User: Which sequence fits this backbone?
């Protein structure tokens, strides 16, 4: 076994090299086997493909709202009243946990379009169905008591962020494409 | 385990097999007359064998349920109704499986508190204890995913709220949640993977149970006095003494189990789960199954963030803190063998610890109660106090306060001679 004892001067033997090389190759092989097993759980191509819907807004009256499904996520479309828009604008200067102006959150002030998914743990907040809409008149999440204002901004309760705005654009005056 | 067996047989077939694969001495050394068990074990020691039985019941009923169940969001709810109405004895199988999960948890919780009271987690049984906590965690994952399968309102919203916990993880949170869901919401891919894992995990549990028992048999059972076995006089053979006693316990267990299955099968469940899942409508209150309530209370109790004082910079937000507290409540159990410094095992000889043990039991019930209530009025405060006390018990009281005030007690000489002179 003399060759294995031969030092190359830096205290590293050929056998050390073989160990490291074998270990390295083994690690790469293991990682390349594990990755497909992990990645298969990510959204599949067909799920990703269902990515946009068109919604006609003309039937939604002022003060009214609808919920539509986009990628399995409920989306609120609220036709806001002047009073609601004014309240949202007035609160731009209030102390907000997740600061944002109302202007940043809408493309047209009368159309509030956002994900109906509480940023706490994902319940659907209630609002515009009548009944209790929270202390700020916008949306209220019954699960753990998060209050959102008429701009969908978090004002009170455990949720950390404002209700998310999905990507959408107006393709006609009262028609939007979400996604 | 097999090593201490002096198994012998006159049966030729048995001897032929034993010579080639010593399975008979393995059984004899693990559950037979050759396995010496402390002679003073009380009824709290019955719950281990009951947990094993509960696992077997879940696996057997689960496998036959799969013969009729369909893991698809369009079909799952109806397939469970089909099991309930059309499949021969389907109602029985499903009620046994659904209530069996509750029975499993009752038994395991009692088993764990037994360990806490009699100090079974102390040297040399730390690894045995840790394997037990691993089983608890796997059970929680299994039961959670099983509850999603009927695809009722509670299934769906429970799945949504619990998977969303992982969005609290900094930076990768949202990608992690999408990875868990296999989409942008809880949907068919989620149901199918939960089904796959719900089928798998019980067998992983069975594997860990084998390790748990292996570790147990290395040093044998602890006992109500918490002192080591000193001589053969301190023990009796497992068979027939504890096989008989365990069978008696199984009889009582089955009576309680049968009461729920036949007379009150939906008592432990939630009526909303008989409404098909509706992703557009959150039920008025989301309540997990009773066995998760204390943990749910801990999760919800944290409503404040930790920030750098006098700035707006938030270090850990409330959501993440709640999640950390919930997982932390299990992590402290893993660390317990090193948090409790006293060399005395049994509470019988630790009068002060005994008080704190019972306060911890009451605290767990309070947390369970809070977890079932809406987070209104005094509930959040009560939950916060309960949570604070839970961690105080494990992280302050046991390692730092108790060692200062606890007096050394004299321990009995041996199990056969338990009188303290
Ligand atoms: C650790 C053991 C297990 C636990 C704690 C457990 C727990 C649960 C729970 C809580 C449910 C929901 C019951 C309901 O409300 O309807 C469930 C459903 C189900 N489980 Fe399990 N389970 C276990 C093992 C298994 C195994 C091994 C299988 C299959 C091989 C299985 C198959 C099923 C199926 C098909 C359902 C859906 C039908 C139904 O809802 O009754 N389970 N399980
Ligand atoms: S999910 Fe909305 S407050 Fe918790």
Assistant:
């Amino acid at each position: 076994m003399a060759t294995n004892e031969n030092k190359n001067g830096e205290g590293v033997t050929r056998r050390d090299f073989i160990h490291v090389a074998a270990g390295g190759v083994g690690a790469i092989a293991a990682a390349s086997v594990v990755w497909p097993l992990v990645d298969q759980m990510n959204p599949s191509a067909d799920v990703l493909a269902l990515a946009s819907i068109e919604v006609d807004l003309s039937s939604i009256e002022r003060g009214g709202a609808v919920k539509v499904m986009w990628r399995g996520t409920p989306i609120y479309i609220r036709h806001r009243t002047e009073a609601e828009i004014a309240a949202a604008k007035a609160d731009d200067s209030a102390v907000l946990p997740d600061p944002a102006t109302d202007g940043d959150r809408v493309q047209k002030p009368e159309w509030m379009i956002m994900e109906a998914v509480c940023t706490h743990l994902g319940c659907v907040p209630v609002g515009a169905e009548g009944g209790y809409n929270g202390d700020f008149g916008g949306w209220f999440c019954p699960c753990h008591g998060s209050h959102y204002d008429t701009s969908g901004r978090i004002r009170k309760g455990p949720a950390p962020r404002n209700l998310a705005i999905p990507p959408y654009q107006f393709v006609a005056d009262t028609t939007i494409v979400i996604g | 385990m097999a090593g201490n067996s002096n198994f012998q047989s006159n049966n030729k077939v048995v001897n032929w097999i034993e010579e080639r694969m010593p399975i008979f001495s393995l059984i004899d050394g693990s559950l037979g007359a050759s396995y010496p068990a402390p002679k003073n074990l009380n009824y709290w020691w019955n719950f281990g064998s009951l947990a094993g039985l509960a696992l077997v019941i879940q696996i057997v009923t689960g496998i036959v349920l799969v013969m009729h169940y369909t893991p698809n969001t369009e079909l799952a709810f109806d397939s469970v109704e089909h099991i309930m109405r059309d499949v021969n004895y389907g109602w029985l199988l499903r009620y046994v499986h659904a209530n069996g999960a509750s029975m499993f948890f009752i038994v395991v919780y009692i088993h764990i508190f037994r360990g806490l009271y009699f100090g079974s987690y102390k040297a040399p049984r730390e690894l045995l204890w840790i394997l037990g906590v691993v089983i608890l965690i796997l059970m929680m994952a299994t039961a959670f995913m099983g509850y999603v399968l009927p695809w009722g309102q509670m299934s769906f919203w429970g799945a949504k709220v619990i998977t969303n916990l992982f969005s609290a993880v900094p930076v990768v949170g949202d990608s992690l949640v999408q990875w868990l869901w296999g989409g942008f919401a809880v949907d068919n891919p989620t149901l199918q993977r939960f089904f796959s894992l719900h089928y798998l995990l019980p067998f992983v549990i069975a594997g860990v149970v084998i390790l748990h028992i292996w570790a147990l048999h290395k040093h044998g059972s602890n006992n109500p006095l918490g002192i080591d076995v000193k001589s053969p006089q301190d023990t009796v053979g497992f068979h027939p003494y504890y096989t008989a006693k365990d069978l008696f316990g199984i009889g009582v267990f089955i009576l309680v189990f049968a009461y729920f299955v036949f007379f009150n099968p939906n008592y432990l469940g939630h009526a909303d789960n008989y409404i098909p899942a509706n992703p557009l409508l959150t039920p008025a209150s989301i309540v997990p199954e009773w066995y998760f309530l204390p943990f749910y209370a801990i999760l919800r109790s944290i409503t404040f963030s930790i920030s750098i004082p006098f700035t707006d910079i938030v270090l850990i937000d409330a959501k993440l803190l709640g999640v950390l507290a919930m997982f932390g409540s299990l992590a402290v159990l893993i660390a317990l063998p090193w948090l409790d410094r006293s060399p005395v095992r049994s509470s019988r000889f630790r009068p002060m610890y005994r008080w704190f043990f019972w306060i911890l039991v009451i605290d767990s019930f309070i947390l369970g109660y809070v977890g079932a209530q809406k987070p209104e009025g005094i509930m959040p405060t009560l939950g916060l106090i309960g949570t604070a006390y839970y961690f105080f018990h494990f992280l302050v009281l046991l390692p730092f306060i108790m060692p200062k005030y606890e007096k050394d007690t004299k321990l009995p000489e041996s199990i056969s001679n338990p009188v303290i002179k």
User: Anything to note?
Assistant: The pocket of FE2/S2 (inorganic) cluster (ligand 2) is lined by residues A 118, 120-123, 141, 143-146, 157-159 (CB under 6 Å).
